[in-house]
Write a structure and sequence with these properties.
Elements (H helix, E strand, L loop, with lengths): L1 H37 L5 H17 L8 H20 L4 H4 L7 H4 L1 H14 L3 H24 L5 E2 L4 E2 H21 L4 H21 L5 H17 L1
Antiparallel strand pairs: 1-2
Helix pairs in contact: 1-2, 1-3, 2-7, 3-6, 6-7, 6-10, 7-8, 7-10, 8-9, 9-10
Length: 231
């Protein structure tokens, strides 16, 4: 009994340390994004995307360190409150300033927590890694493709999306599905069906989601798609 209590206390202390480290790393990434904008004069699109990608990578590491979703709820809540406060007060233009009205930077932590929660409940980390990878990588590829070649292609959804950007998203999403399917040793037939269906659903969602809402709709739709297909 005493041994179990000591072990539990040790684990709690270890998880607390991990939480402090993750929160510190997130704040460091925010600071770096702001320095890139203020000192190195990079555009808000670049500094914002830097935080988008590096924050996503940090989130993808969380299942390796945290056992309980409560820690992720705490971290995501703190990140959300910080982003919401700076958005309302018009602080951190390096993160929130966009040419179009967008709340994508604010809602970013929300799907990360829900994906972690469901993955923990179902004891299947694929339900976390794949949706968050689409949020981190595929969304970035869509923006890069749209900004690079989007001017030459047809615009969609009040000119907030482009065909090239959506194609870039679909290709990267399909690759993410295949990569994680291989990592989790899914049977070939199941991986093909899962990859095609999830990519299709996520791409349609990305196209119709404007004002940065794709940061929350895409991973959650991918999560629902995986739940249905894997069940």
């Amino acid at each position: 009994m005493v041994f179990c209590l000591k072990k539990r206390t040790a684990i709690m202390g270890q998880q607390t340390i991990y939480a402090i480290i993750f929160l510190s790393l997130f704040l460091l990434l925010v600071a770096i994004a702001h320095l890139l904008y203020r000192i190195f004069r990079v555009s808000p699109e670049v500094s914002r995307k830097f935080l988008h990608v590096t924050g996503g990578i940090l989130a993808l590491c969380s299942p390796l360190f945290f056992r309980s979703h409560w820690w992720i709820l705490l971290l995501c809540s703190l990140a959300f409150l910080l982003l919401l406060f700076t958005y309302i007060k018009r602080l951190l233009p390096s993160i929130h300033q966009t040419k179009r009205k967008s709340i994508g930077s604010v809602v970013y932590p929300i799907p990360i927590y829900f994906c972690f929660l469901v993955a923990s409940d179902k004891s299947n980390d694929l339900l976390f890694y794949l949706p968050v990878s689409l949020l981190t990588i595929s969304d970035t590829m869509a923006e890069l493709g749209g900004k690079t070649w989007g001017m030459r292609s047809r615009k969609l959804m009040y000119s907030q999306k482009s065909i090239v950007g959506s194609i870039s998203f679909a290709i990267s999403a399909l690759l993410m599905c295949v990569v994680w399917g291989v990592v989790f040793n899914l049977p070939l037939q199941e991986m093909i069906v899962l990859s095609i269906a999830t990519t299709l659903m996520a791409t349609i969602t990305e196209v119709i989601s404007t004002r940065g809402l794709d940061n929350i709709t895409v991973p959650l739709v991918a999560l629902v798609s995986l739940l249905f297909l894997l069940h």
